[in-house]
Amino acid sequence: MTIQAKTVDYDQDGKTFEGYFAWNDASKKPAPCVLVAHAWAGLTDYEQTNARNLAELGYSAFCIDLYGKGVRGNSTEENAGLMQPFLDDRAMLQNRLIHASDVARAQENVDASKMAAIGYCFGGLCVLDMARVGASIQGVVSFHGLFFPPGNTEGNKIQTKVLALHGWDDPMATPDQAVSFAAEMKAAGADWQIHGYGNTCHAFTHPSANDPDNGMSYSESAYQRSWQAMTNFFEEIL
Question: SS in 3 state form for the chain?
Answer without folding.
Answer: CCEEEEEEEEEECCEEEEEEEEEECCCCCCEEEEEEECCCCCCCHHHHHHHHHHHHCCCEEEECCCCCCCCCCCCHHHHHHHHHHHHHCHHHHHHHHHHHHHHHHCCCCEEEEEEEEEEECHHHHHHHHHHHCCCCCCEEEEECCCCCCCCCCCCCCCCCEEEEEEECCCCCCCHHHHHHHHHHHHHCCCCEEEEEECCCCECCCCCCCEEHHHCEECCHHHHHHHHHHHHHHHHHHC
